[in-house]
Amino acid sequence: MLRITLIENNPNEPLLIVEGKVLGPWVAELEAAVARAQDSSPGGLSLDIAAVSFVDARGIALLHRLLGQGVRLRAASPFVLELLHMQ
Hints:
It is a single chain. The chain contains 3 helices and 4 strands. It is α/β, with parallel strands linked by helices. It has a single domain (about 1-85), classed as Transcription Regulator spoIIAA, CATH 3.30.750. It has a 4-stranded mixed β-sheet, covered by helices on one side. Strand 2, helix 1 (about 25-40) and strand 3 form a beta-alpha-beta unit.
């Protein structure tokens, strides 16, 4: 299961809080949520993935693409950070 919460405290840079596992069909759901948030905000976007407990290969690929597009990570567990550096 994956929970995605959009926080719009800063209109120039919304925050998506992601909780759970980024795998299988949830990868596409996260990608869609990011696209919606980017469409509604002219500025950047931040992801808080501190509560993400697992990421599969497709999820890591998505996170790499998002980082390449300028999406910022606000928080991530050491596990997820290690996965991002391994790819």
